[in-house]
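Internal ticket #5521
Category: modeling
Description: The requester needs a full-assembly model to guide mutagenesis choices. All entity lines are attached below as received. Residue total reported by intake: 1758.
Assigned to: D.W.
Attached entities:
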Amino acid sequence: METLMILLAGILVMAATYLLLSKNFIRVIIGTAILSHAVHLLLMVMGGLKAGNVPLLGENAAPYTDALPQALILTAIVISFAVTAFILVLAYRAYKELGTDDLEKLRGVDDE
Amino acid sequence: MIEMMLIVSLVFFILAIAVSVYRIIRGPSLPDRVLAMDLVGINLLSGIAIFSILLDTTAFFDVILLIGILAFIGTIALTKFIERGAIIEYKRDR
Amino acid sequence: MNISGIGEFLTSLLILIGASMSMISAFGMIRFPDVYTRAHAATKSSTLAVLLTLSGVFLFLWISESFISVRLLLGIAFVFITAPVSGHLVCRAAYRSNVKLAQVSTRDELKNVIQQKE
Amino acid sequence: MNNLVVLPMIIPLLTGIALFFFRSLLWLQRLISIGAMLAASAVSIYILHLIQRDGILRLDFGGWKPPFGILFVADSFAMLLVLAASVITVICLFYAFFSIGKAREKMYVYPFILFLIAGVNGSFLTGDLFNLFVCFEVMLLASYVLISLGGKRVQLRESFKYVAINILSSWLFLVAIAYLYGAVGTLNMAHLSQRIAEVGQGPLLTTISIVFLIVFSLKAGLVLYHWLPGSYRVAPTAIAALFGALLTKVGMYALFRVFTLLFYHQPEITHTLIGIMAGITLIGGSIGAIAYQNVRAIVTYNVIITVGFILIGLAASTTMGYEGAAYYFIHDMVAKALLFLLAGTMIALTGTAAIERMSGLIRNYPLLGWLYFIAILSIVGIPPLSGFIGKMLIGQAAIESHSYLLLALGFLSSLFVLYSLLRIFLNCFWGETIISEENEAPLKRGLLMPSILLAILSVGIGIAPEWLAPYVQDAAHTLANPEEYINAVLED
Amino acid sequence: MKINDVILQTVAKVVVFIILTLGVYIFLAGHHNPGGGFVGGLVLASALVLLYLSFDIKTVHKGLPFDFKLIAALGAFTVVAAGVGALFFNESFLTQTFLSWTWPIVGKMGVSTVTIFEAGVALAVVGVVITIILSISEDV
Amino acid sequence: MLITIIIPFLAALFVPILHKSIFRKLHIGWFVLFVPLVLFMLLARSIPSVSNGRAFVHAFEWIPAYGVNFTIYLDGMSLLFSLLITGIGALVVLYSIFYLSQRESLSHFYVYLLMFMGAMLGLVFSDNVIALYLFWELTSISSFLLIAFWFYRNQSRYGAQKSLLITVSGGIAMLAGFLMLYTMTGSFSIREIASSIHLHANHELFLPALVLILLGAFSKSVQFPFHIWLPDAMEAPTPVSAYLHSATMVKAGLYLVARFTPIFGVEPVWFWTVSIVGLVTLFWGSFSAIRQTDLKALLAYSTISQLGLIMSLLGIGSAVYALDFQPSSLILTSAAFAAFFHLINHSTFKGALFMVIGIIDHTVGTRDVRRLGGLMAMMPLTFTIALIGSFSMAGLPPFNGFLSKEMFFYAMNQVQAFNLFSISTLSALFPILAWIASILTFVYSMIIVFQTFFGRYKPDEFDRPPEEASFGMLIAPAILSILIVGIFFFPNVINRHILQPILLNVYAPLADAMEFDFHISAWHGFNLELFMTLGVVVFGAIVYKLLRHWMKIYGLFPEKWSFDSLYHFILERGEQAARSLTNTYMTGSLRHYFAYIFLFFIAAVGGILIYTGAFSIATNQDAPITVYEWIIAVIMMIAGIAIIFATSRLTAIILNSVLGFSIAGLFVMFRAPDLALTQLVVESVTTALFLLCFYFLPPFKQEEKPARNFQWTHALISISVGLVFIFIALAVNSNPMFDTIAHFFENADELTGSSNIVNAILGDFRAFDTMLEVVVLFLAGIGVYTLVKLKKGREEQNIEDQ
């Protein structure tokens, strides 16, 4: 299963990379979102997917799955949520102010 | 036997979800999509209920209720959007 | 097969029925011509389907593990309350955003009412 | 257990949150924020002394022994940076009082600055890799907000790029953490170091270390600095000064930490790569610094040059190099803050950032001009100003480690620094006075005081580096001997 | 023409309580079961969002006159202060403590300072989510 | 001795204060004058003891941790230089009192001047090379400030910048050399280095250090090709030119070479570089001087040439070391002797000449030789001084220049006779070049005298009518011309008290072996040197007469081929090139920036992956895959790929949320209910935000529709990134090295009273992460609020924010 999940995460990374390279606000943001999905998946896989039990003591018997990556992912999810929310609103505001969602039009010369 | 039936039900639900997804993609109107999404949510919720029997855990019951809530809120939000353009109004004037 | 075995069988049958129903309502989603008719399939039959399934699960757990899940009961109640409302709202939104009725429709009663009001 | 260690981070954090309750009481916000940073600075000094006395301090959060819990580890290197960062923040806050404007003040600019510094200090202190990521995020989120605060068009344009690139680097950081956790199964840096040493830094771990290298390079502006000039230019002066002084330093600190504590077994690959990257950065920064006629642009490219220069110390990976880097870290925080503040003041006074449109400012604002002159000399590394000792030690380290090319690039880059900054001085401060006395914009004393303080600091550090020497030597010693860090963390 | 939202509003009033119950449950369950402050907070926030959806901002503010930024700040403050609290007991920063005892019928029960911490998390989440949503909604 | 260094700086501190209070009416220069005078006397008092071979050492700690100290070392060489600094300094200050009017910003001028004086004294007194470097740079800076004294003039700024850039570059090279010396010997003290350097003569750094330190010396002492800054430095007020740019600062390089001769002399490269560069400079300087029309520029080039002369002498003198003190080689010590003697003489006559030029400039308002002429009658005293100075420079008796010029010829002839290092043809060039250069020197000396004071009187060309300069202005040059003559008649006073001790410093190993007993006399009989001098006069006169005819030769060297224009070209074009280069990659396009990151990622990580051969794959430890996981995985893959081709914003958003919900499903599979719950809610909220923010935007533009415009390069990049990502992950997965630390958390119930391990970790074990996570969330929330509420975009440009 690990291999499959790694492949899946890899494909997500590819898609995310491709999206990041496009010139549209929303596609870039979706790219970062997909990348975060891939990263969470990777964290999960790296913790080992060995058939263990839900990490709730008492409900099931040991062995449990590795709970640490789960905690890390939880933190990462929250952070990625915060970041995504921020960049979304930023992009929204930028669109409103600048009147375009085409990043190639927003280069800005370095010496204006 | 029982497990067989449960799995069959699960497959049914998955098929139902697939069909709804088709409707989401196909449209043609926005309300159609919203409707289909609502359906996806409801079916997903049932699927998870069955799944937790299969996995023999009650850990996902929160998820069930949660999906119900989210589907409901999502549907309302979308309908309001379709109807009035704004989702949350400052002061309802009409 | 003991009592609980039968109970389990019956409840899973309940689940299966629910599942089939939801299947059928999903087909309705494809087959019906416009959003208003699809709303029937989407809200009415599938609400029943969900209710059946969830009750099945609830009973199953009750019988097999004598576990009364309040959350599940809440869930059932919730779906029961909200599903019709969302169906209603979707239809209304569709109508107000001028989604066309299917060709086969014969009457549009609401049209007259709205016109009168305005 | 040493709860003191958490204070440099928690004081700004807590006061930052508390300030939200005093939104309209601007004077109180100012007072509290500056008081908090002063307190943090004082605590940092005290901790620095404690480290001299008792060795490395650590604080296990929640009392959970490493490697299971998170902990803060205060060694001299980290604390020196914490101290410098806190002091710089005090000064930049002071500048902000006079320059940032009511609108931003009401929009919580002080809390955000405090959060920024909390993230920075946390990144310096933490002993846990994942926690480093989280601290980075605190710092970055604050920086995102600060850079876009004001919502001007350029700001929105540049901050989107800044945010997007930093998000990518954050997720890459997580990827690297995931790889490392998968390979070694722990997150505590000391424990990681121990385990890596135990198993030997094989090809796989070396490859993972390169992922870390890329992540921190992005933060530090090493080779991958292209995002930096645009974004640093759009923020208000006080904030740009903080960014220029602190943000790249955090990335560099992480590089130092990771490549001295974790991945120090294969320097022929990793440190060589760092050396090459430092060289490229020096070249790119130097070329960029002379390319533009815009004060802000020149100043930001100077930030990049510094990055390359400090990392020569890491590439050399000798004690001397670490000492030099530590000195240079401190110097550069002071000097870059000074430079940014002065540049900002110039822009505020003349209303333009183009150097060809300024002239003869020294007649109107002599003190400003001489402060700028001091800043130049300090950054170029003319003794007895603060830049010299670090430059000397890094140069020595480069010689010791036979990296003559880096030495040449590093020292040549000082010339570019000199040329680029001198151009501003010659064109803007000297030359025909074009502002008549009547049209002269008044220079608020509040805008000048922070620069004076920073200049005094720079001169002070330059004249008396001996005072810092024990701390710096201890810092370098710890960096050069990772087992000390490990022992301090993992023994009870 | 005024759109009649009676059905929605009536249902919302009922449903909000179900959601709030669930939110509190999830929040409390976090100690032993899936859930916790973050999800609990999100669910509570979704209840509020439902209110905003079915009524309008002004009406809701009459019933809930809070500045959600301050609620978020309060939450964040609680979280950090929960850590600082340990300092007064001469414990390491963020030291949590718990008491648990076994009752005859109910089984094992416990109280823990983590609850304060988690409450802070939940408050912060509610505050933040509502702040974000309201900010955007007011801007459109 | 430290006091001598500190006094000028202290005085500099008082100058601005005094200028505003007591010296409002009186010229502040009178106060400043005390400083060099007092110092000169202080230093002069130590002449007797130093000439007996004593040396004073005082150490003051600065940064002992790194071996950097202010070690004051006063020996013969330092004494000579310090006497020059204070002596000429006193005269220059005296001169400046009359030269600069009260209207100039005198306090700045004297602060810089005193700063320079202190720095220069520090330079010659420092034994520690880092302290030496400190003062070295300080002299560069004060020179910079003095050159740009009239900073509103473009030329002044240009000259100041040029001098600073070149001297600081040299200084930095020198610092690198010092650091290399430290690496070899472990000491920053010149004396300690000198005593232990012979152990490291074969060190790989020895030669680089030598070259680098020479670079420093050459750039400061305006040796070819670094001479270009000196003519531009003439924009400084004339007292400054007289002081810094002829008498003292430019001699710092000579000082350095002399100081380091004991260290590097053993290496023949030192001899060759120093002497040949010196000779070339000598020749080129004198050659270029003739074509100058500005008298100050002419003097600048003459300074260059004279410094080249001294430099070449020092080089020849160093051969004694290279020849390992063979007895026959000791005759070459006379070269070093001549060097220092000429150094003193040069200070006297060049100082005098500068002051004279200053007087002329001051009185008639021009320094252009084409406009000057016939001033002898109006300014007899000035003329006399100029005559003395020029003739001394030309090497004519009865002036001190004659003596040192004779010795210079003598040393040059010795080289030829000696046939150093068996390169006879090259060494034969030495005297010839020296002789030609001397002829040219003669010519430009004559230009100064004859074209200024003789010839046609052209009063229309002057800004002001010429008249004899004020008495005060004439004092200083007069004193110098008295010295010029005085030294000619009593050279041995200087010889015994000052020059002999220096030779002991330069040739320390010889101190016991031999007595330096040079006797300077004007008359040596009819020897080769005398004939050379006669030849110089004869040919010089002819050349001067035919000046107009052969001036065409300069046309062969067009302006744009000079080093001067090379410097200009480099700066000008460098800036342009830098700009265009930087603009090529700093495009401001986010897409490019991302591409850099990804390409670097592929190159670095992928490269190392392949280079180290880290890749491995083992699937045998994998958990089995169930059908549900397949389903979700396939859905995700499809969604992931489909999102690339999505043509509408809504589709992209929905597909993204499909991915998010599927991840939640995967979390269910992976037995992570907490995660599933959180992911579910978060994904819903995120989707809602996406819709809120972006539904209103116009549809994707046509060119953005990737289905029609699939970017193959982007696809290639993304596939490579993905592959690198996958390969490392697979390698990590197949090489588990340790168990994770997770087993500890399974005791969560006892430790924290929580049976949900994940929540125990979040709330207790790693509560700090959670705390900061909340802060992050909080920040994002408030950030969104500020973003929406604070809109400055439409306001006018706020200056502060640029």
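Resolution: model delivered.
Comment from assignee: The radius of gyration of chain D is 21 Å.
Ticket closed.
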